[in-house]
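It is worth pausing here to work through a concrete case rather than discussing structure prediction in the abstract. The textbook approach is simple: state the sequence, then state the predicted structure, then interpret. We follow exactly that order.
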Amino acid sequence: MRHFAHPAPLALRALNALGAVTLVMLPCLATAVPIEVTVQDARNTPLNDAVVSIEVKGVKSTAAAGTQAELAQRNRSFAPSVLPIQTGTLVQFPNLDTVRHHVYSFSATRPFEIKLYAGTPASPVTFDKAGTAVLGCNIHDRMAGFIHVVNTPYFAKTSAFGVAQLDVPAGEHTVQIWHPSLADTRLPIRQPLKVLASGSQTFNLTLTGNGASTPPGK
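Step two, the predicted structure:
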């Protein structure tokens, strides 16, 4: 998911065993700033389905009224398995299977339950608190999904190559990274991020088994 404009390239790396970020800025043209974030594990393997969000001062933390998203059940799985949304978003849970499902979450971010049903429930579920909701189905134990809620409209999910791309305005922001391995019991990693008005940046972050960040390759 990309937001705003589309300019030229530049570089940034996040390297520090405590999760600190070092920005390496190169001169560039244009005012729109594309941010590319690569997330990998301790073995330098790209992490798919990590959620990257950029918190920008002065930007409304909640989604516009009526904003909706969808997390379906298809082939007895949640589709997608990871859904990033902004706070205030209404989520529908259509059942596209020929069997009924019983969707629930016990996570503190948004506990809810949609009892045995087929088709699309009459009312969506509103997620008005940032955090992570782990989803399950009372009928099919192997089904698992995640809804990660962020307080910003600037967010994206990493590809199979571990890369997320966003366009953000210049300024001093905070980048937040969450991965399903953190589930709903550990907080996302947060780092300061200064975005210049003239340049693009690349941000590399390695997640260890306990969710801490380390320099790539260490």
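Step three, interpretation. The chain is about 0% helix and 45% strand. The chain has two domains: 33-59+155-212, 68-150.
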